[in-house]
Amino acid sequence: MPTESANLPLPGRLRAAVDAVAEQPIADTEKGFGVISAGRAVSAATLAAERPAALGADFTMPLLVLRDSALRHNVVAMATWCARAGVQLAPHGKTTMAPQLIARQLAAGAWGVTAATISQAQVFRAFGMPRVLIANELTEPAGIRWLAAELAADRDFECYVYADSVAGVTLLDRALQSGGGVTRPLNVLIELGFPGGRTGCRTVAEGVDTAAAVSATSTLEVAGVAGYEGGIGADSSPATLAAVASYCRQLRELAQALRDRLPLPSAGSEPGSESLAAPRNPAFIISVGGSAYFDVVVRELTAGPGPEPGGPEPGGPEPVVVLRSGCYLTHDHGEYARVGPAARQRGPELIPALELWAPVLSRPEPTLALICAGRRDVSFDQGFPVPLRVRGADGALRGADRMTVTRLDDQHAYLSVPADAELVPGDLICLGISHPCTTFDKWRVIPVVDDEYRVIDAVHTFF
To answer: Which of 29, 257, 364, 422 could disulfide-pair with 262, CB 3.0 to 4.6 Å?
Structure first.
């Protein structure tokens, strides 16, 4: 049986790279694989052919698994939702750093992939991904020069980066020029932030000044605006949703200013000049990230305000809205289940795909059990894992009602249990996770299972 990625329609270079990962040996030093990989060659391809039981004798615990049916559902659900909303999707690759999973997203129609750092972009380029949006400012000369060389080497490679200050633009321009290999301008998105947030211009006026500085170079080109709304809040209260909406309207204001009203000097003119040269890049992007409020983002950025009464008609085609949501792929049982669009019935219905299985080690007190999974195995920055099911020694599943993880050590979870709960050492606990990003980075190889928990693939991560 071929791995999932073997059936995907992908560009040739990406196709070959993903196929190579499917044949990559999985060492017995990888978590969970110490038995099945001992003394023989095991790979994603061999697992797909053999379909061993993830919860049987072949794998050691704890074991993080990806449910294939949930992954398939989420990829299609998000792609369909974006298509109906009229927006593009560049899923944030930092969530998984798993090219096999990103390939699924691209095959379903994703516009590109998002990176947060040059190192992540290098991973994606090593796999031949043709369009990368680096959702961050670049200030490190070696990384900037690498990017210039990559653009020069592959005319089909498309890349976008951020700028939020004239000083940052100057640094980016000088680093590109010092490399001596600039063959075409680098696409720049002017980032707008908010008070107390992370990067980004704090006002529309600062964004206009930054765009003017970009347009005054020969190495850079204004390609749109960008922002990140996820840091505005961590709930779905009316106040938080209103603040996200207000921020999106500021992004629209900046986009409109850059496209239609404020100066965008052509290369070689002084920043702040009054020339109204059209942007050299015909596609104008508004990109916003985050997996918690993308329903609000789409509502605000696709509303289309129309021209002011008696004012000029908007110039050029409508901006292309590009979402950068990443956690939708696996969803979760915590943060995004609580505050994401699906919880408001405003987005695609998503199914949690990540599960951590771990054995009960001890029940030293009637209301306390210790299980073999901790901070080395699962995320805890946005909430503790959530007990979902118990699997007894006979293989039967039962609910984990009223069980709660109250504390994590490096390799132990403290489980509060009802005194009358049936739970003994050796039972397996299935844990749902909160915040996929900081679970994936704890595993280099993750089995993919069908609904009977047979392993049908394995995903490699590249953090």
So the answer is: 257
DSSP reduced 3-state for 424: coil
Copy the structure tokens of residue 290: 């985050």
Q: What is the mean pLDDT of the chain?
A: 91
Contact 137, 41 (CB under 8 A): no
Q: State yes or no: cis peptide before 62, omega within 30 of 0.
A: yes
Strands 455-460 and 445-449: antiparallel
Considering only CA atoms, which of 66, 48, 112, 70 is closest in space to residue 283?
A: 112
Tokens describing residue 273: 């000049």
Radius of gyration of the chain (CA): 24
Q: Is 254:164 a contact under the CB 8 Å cutoff?
A: no
What residues have CB less than 8 Å from 394, skipping those under 6 apart?
none
* DSSP β-bridge partners for residue 188: 161, 222
Q: At what angle do helices 204-215 and 166-179 cross, to 10 degrees?
A: 20
Q: Tens of pLDDT along 319-356?
A: 999 999 999 999 999 999 999 998 998 999 999 999 99
What is each CA distance from 355 to 3, 92, 447, in whole angstroms?
A: 20, 21, 11
Q: Which helix (H) or strand (E) holds 64?
A: strand 63-67
Specify the 3-state DSSP secondary structure of 364.
strand
Q: For 151-171, what is each residue's pLDDT tens digit?
A: 999 999 999 999 999 999 999
> What does the pLDDT read at residue 138?
96
- Residue 307 is which amino acid? P
Provide the token pair at 373: 């999974």
Cα 247 to Cα 91, 250, 251, distances in angstroms: 21, 5, 6
The answer to whether the Cα torsion of 157, 163, 169, 175 is positive or negative is negative
Query: What element of type H or E holds 9?
Result: none
Residues 6+ apart with CB under 8 A from 130: 11, 14, 112, 156, 157, 158
Report the alpha-carbon distance of residue 218 to residue 457 in Å, rounded.
47
pLDDT of residue 259: 86
Spatial distance between the Cα atoms of 281 and 291, rounded to a whole number of angstroms: 28
Contact 248, 297 (CB under 8 A): yes
Q: Which ranges in 373-454 belong to alpha helices (H)?
A: 437-440
